[in-house]
Specification:
Layout lengths: L2 H48 L4 H7 L8 E6 L5 E8 L2 E8 L3 E3 L3
Antiparallel strand pairs: 1-2, 2-3, 3-4
Length: 107
């Protein structure tokens, strides 16, 4: 085998090992990332829409954990609806507010 072929085989094996390790890591960490994102979305939704507090006050409740998340709060056209979306790397969470039901996590 020539030197180029050996390096190509080593590079291919390295990539395959890296992809396999990333997939295995995601399977073990993935559920926790999703749970955290959903938790922050639900709690922020309840704090802002159900209790009527300001976003800044609600953020203080969840420091320092919330600082790692991108949190977007969207208010509906009326005060009867709203949505909170959170993101931590590849993990996303979403909670919706409806005056009749409060904050829920859609499936």
């Amino acid at each position: 085998m020539s030197g180029k072929r050996i390096w190509a085989a080593v590079a291919t094996a390295s990539v395959l090992i890296g992809v396999s390790a990333a997939a295995a890591g995601y399977r073990s960490v993935g559920p926790y990332g999703r749970i955290g994102a959903q938790y922050i979305a639900k709690e922020m939704c309840s704090c802002v829409f159900v209790t009527g507090r300001k976003e800044a006050g609600c953020r203080q409740e969840f420091e320092p954990d919330i600082d790692k998340f991108d949190v977007q709060i969207r208010r509906g056209e009326s005060s009867d609806q709203g949505e909170v979306r959170t993101r931590l790397a590849i993990f996303e969470g979403r909670a919706t507010y409806d005056k009749a039901y409060g904050c829920t996590i859609p499936e």
